[in-house]
Amino acid sequence: MNPSFKNLTAIAGKRSRTIIGLMSGTSLDGLDIALCRISGSGADTAVHLIKFCTKKYAAELRERLRSISSVKLADMQELCKQHTGLAAYHAELILEALSEWETEPEDVDCIASHGQTVYHLPARVQRHGIKSLNSTLQIGDGDQIAARTGILTISDFRQKHTAHGGEGAPMAALVDRILFGDEKESRILLNIGGIANYTWIPAERQGEYDSFTTDTGPGNTLIDTLSNRYFQKMFDKEGLLAASGKINRDLLDALFSDPWFNESAPKSTGPEYFHYAWMAVRAEQAGLSLNKIPPVDQLATVTELTARTIAQNIRENVPEYEECAIYVSGGGAHNGYLVSRMKEHVVNTTVHDFSELGFDPDAKEAMIFAVLANEMLAGEGFDFERGDGSIQKLNFGKISFPL
Ligand SMILES: Nc1ncnc2c1ncn2[C@@H]1O[C@H](COP(=O)(O)OP(=O)(O)OP(=O)(O)O)[C@@H](O)[C@H]1O
Ligand SMILES: CC(=O)N[C@H]1[C@@H]2OC[C@@H](O2)[C@@H](O)[C@@H]1O[C@H](C)C(=O)O
């Protein structure tokens, strides 16, 4: 037998596995590394988060990634270079984190690598162009990570999703249902990253409902873009700048009237749709000029847009949403002003920090990919609703052996 297969079988047969989950999201702020101990599979999965850190990207890398992410035209040489280079760098960061945690690579069974989304293109946004399949592209090759760390690596999780008719995102719900469902409490797990998305998990007593997941639109992406453009900051810390501005109602209406917000959920999106030029065009169509609106007011307005579109999506799609508890994770959970505006719009629903469920809110997405990898190794797969509405058990990710 191929010795790599033998090793794979041994890992798959263990009672529990040590898996590193990696996420580098659309905010391009850095690599999240979650060292997890995972036992069981499927509905019996249990996760213990042993360690977590975010390795921040240097400004130069961030700019290089920005130049090839969410843009229609990119330098192919840079794209090709980063497919390998970013993976090699991720391997370096993993080894650095393991050394800080005094953990040997030999003690890690698997790495689950999301990679860097460079473009996300659900068929729904191509309505004015050529109709094609749902497409999404993540770079950072798994073979590089496996070869450089010596650890079995599972990567490129989203392609199976699109292959079965999904948009390739959001995927968190597959795992959220297993880890965070509760018998008594109906929950909404809201993640405010670059893009905001949530999973609704009804309490078991409401068994007539299925769980449900969708992106809601911009999370921090527009806030970060304006913070960078006008204030040379990576983000609006705690939302203080936005809180000091005034919401421009005309601009808010112009942005809010974008048809994407009224499209039926579930749906997914990315910064290739919601960006500064999108804002400028929508403003212009409404007879407004961004140049004439003070930057802090623009920031207050996009923060309000984010809060309102999250709340509206929840109100329109979650049955009996008032009875749900919302748990907020992702970097946007640190933006107190954004969260307070969202609370205002969801009215009676209680809003909690995701840490109340016993995990670091910043670690959630990296943990999700660790659980996807665990299932690929040891489980029967997740119930997935395919494009034709049929339910199929599926596993996600591609396996890279170190040798
Ligand atoms: N203290 C803070 N105050 C305000 N905003 C913050 C703070 N800390 C982080 N953020 C926001 O969180 C963002 C990063 O969030 P996160 O890492 O969850 O996103 P991501 O994983 O890159 O995105 P996605 O989930 O869409 O892929 C930052 O870009 C910033 O906008
Ligand atoms: C294509 C892509 O990378 N999408 C991300 C992004 O970040 C948040 C939101 O947009 C979500 O759709 C998704 O990530 C999470 C982990 C998901 O798939 O559930």
UniProtKB/TrEMBL annotation:
Role of this protein: Catalyzes the specific phosphorylation of 1,6-anhydro-N-acetylmuramic acid (anhMurNAc) with the simultaneous cleavage of the 1,6-anhydro ring, generating MurNAc-6-P. Is required for the utilization of anhMurNAc either imported from the medium or derived from its own cell wall murein, and thus plays a role in cell wall recycling.
Keywords: ATP-binding, Carbohydrate metabolism, Kinase, Nucleotide-binding, Transferase
HAMAP family per the UniProt record, alphabetical: AnhMurNAc_kinase
Protein name according to UniProt: Anhydro-N-acetylmuramic acid kinase
Catalyzed chemical reaction(s): 1,6-anhydro-N-acetyl-beta-muramate + ATP + H2O = N-acetyl-D-muramate 6-phosphate + ADP + H(+)
Entry's Gene Ontology BP terms: 1,6-anhydro-N-acetyl-beta-muramic acid catabolic process; amino sugar metabolic process; peptidoglycan turnover
Origin superkingdom: Bacteria
Binding residues for ATP: 25-32
CDD domains per UniProt: ASKHA_NBD_ANMK
InterPro entries in UniProt: Anhydro_N_Ac-Mur_kinase, ATPase_NBD
EC number: 2.7.1.170
Gene field: anmK
Pathway as given in its UniProt record: Cell wall biogenesis; peptidoglycan recycling; Amino-sugar metabolism; 1,6-anhydro-N-acetylmuramate degradation
Family per record: Belongs to the anhydro-N-acetylmuramic acid kinase family.
GO molecular function: ATP binding; kinase activity; phosphotransferase activity, alcohol group as acceptor
